[in-house]
């Protein structure tokens, strides 16, 4: 049985699909699991041993479709559910299942501030797509696989951080998901443990400004490491503080205690850190209560549409720091 799983983006969303491919491979004895995504996420899917073959979205659409047809898939599992995946499904002409995006319910929450969303994590909605094949959620949570060549060594870290550190993810796909610079600086000042700042090359300059509050305590790793290497830094952290971003889900894959900080988005969208049945792992969300304008989007904006950015400006940094110190790293 040959099955094509589709998820085009992004890092966090692809990590959230890993229970589906694992359960397909392990519970359907004859399954060959193929995965279609964007070339930008090649390293992410090719390191997953539960995926038998990877395919990539190409500019040559007709050529890509012809190569997919040659695979003679039995089923398509659509975990992206947009117009492009519809074109793929129509071209392949095999039985398919698509996950419930709940766009109407999300619109009601963002536009009318009425929450009619089911209390179901997106992972469980993904798993619904394979239930007809007799596949069930095994409760083992998310997966993330780091190739041996991309693992961090002690020499990659400053001496001050080799005995243990807290990971602080400073970036996010959109600005309304992330704490402003002055809040991140204040948080680092209050944390009484070594800190590794995590993010991409686009976060490097801001990371330098944050690290300047205490260059010994705070190490700026943003832009210095690949995705796999950054994931290994997450794996090595005693605790992870993160916005609603891909590295938060990678931290959950490694069963790390997580303090998540939410701006314009909300955990109610079904994107909170996911541990499966391993609920003993500590996670604590921080949201500013009582804001009539929140959530303003299911994704985010480059800047607050109302100009005040209260969902992050009113985050209580002292309480976040207290939550960190209530659970000393390593306990």
From TrEMBL:
<protein>
    <submittedName>
        <fullName>Heptosyltransferase-2</fullName>
    </submittedName>
</protein>
<dbReference type="InterPro" id="IPR051199">
    <property type="entry name" value="LPS_LOS_Heptosyltrfase"/>
</dbReference>
<dbReference type="GO" id="GO:0005829">
    <property type="term" value="C:cytosol"/>
</dbReference>
<keyword id="KW-0328">Glycosyltransferase</keyword>
<dbReference type="Pfam" id="PF01075">
    <property type="entry name" value="Glyco_transf_9"/>
</dbReference>
<keyword id="KW-0808">Transferase</keyword>
<dbReference type="GO" id="GO:0009244">
    <property type="term" value="P:lipopolysaccharide core region biosynthetic process"/>
</dbReference>
<dbReference type="GO" id="GO:0008713">
    <property type="term" value="F:ADP-heptose-lipopolysaccharide heptosyltransferase activity"/>
</dbReference>
<dbReference type="InterPro" id="IPR002201">
    <property type="entry name" value="Glyco_trans_9"/>
</dbReference>
């Amino acid at each position: 049985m040959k099955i094509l799983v589709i998820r085009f983006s992004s890092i966090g969303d692809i990590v959230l699909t890993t229970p589906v491919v694992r359960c397909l491979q392990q519970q359907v004895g004859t399954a060959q699991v193929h995965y279609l995504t964007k070339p930008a996420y090649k390293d992410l899917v090719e390191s997953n041993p539960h995926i038998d073959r990877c395919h990539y979205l190409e500019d040559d659409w007709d050529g890509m479709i012809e190569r997919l047809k040659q695979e003679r898939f039995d089923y398509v599992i659509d975990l992206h559910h947009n117009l492009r995946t519809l074109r793929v499904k129509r071209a392949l002409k095999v039985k398919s299942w698509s996950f419930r995006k709940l766009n109407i319910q999300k619109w009601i929450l963002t536009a009318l501030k009425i929450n009619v969303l089911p209390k179901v994590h997106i992972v469980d909605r993904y798993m619904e797509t394979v239930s007809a094949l007799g596949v069930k959620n095994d409760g083992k949570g998310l997966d993330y696989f780091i190739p041996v060549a991309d693992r961090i060594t002690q020499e990659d870290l400053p001496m001050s951080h080799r005995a243990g550190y807290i990971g602080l993810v400073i970036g996010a796909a959109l600005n309304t998901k992330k704490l402003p610079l002055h809040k991140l600086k204040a948080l680092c000042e209050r944390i009484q443990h070594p800190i590794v700042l995590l993010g991409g090359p686009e976060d490097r300059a801001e990371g330098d400004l944050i690290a300047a509050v205490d260059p010994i305590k705070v190490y700026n790793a943003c832009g210095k490491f690949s995705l796999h290497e950054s994931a290994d830094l997450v794996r090595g952290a005693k605790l992870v503080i993160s916005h609603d971003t891909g590295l938060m889900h990678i931290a959950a894959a490694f069963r790390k205690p997580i303090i998540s900080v939410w701006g314009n988005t909300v955990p109610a969208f079904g994107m909170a850190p996911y541990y499966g049945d391993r609920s003993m792992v500590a996670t604590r969300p921080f949201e500013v209560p009582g804001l009539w304008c929140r959530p303003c989007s299911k994704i985010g904006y480059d800047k607050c549409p109302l100009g005040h950015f209260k969902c992050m400006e009113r985050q209580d940094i002292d309480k976040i720091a207290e939550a960190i110190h209530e659970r000393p790293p390593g306990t």
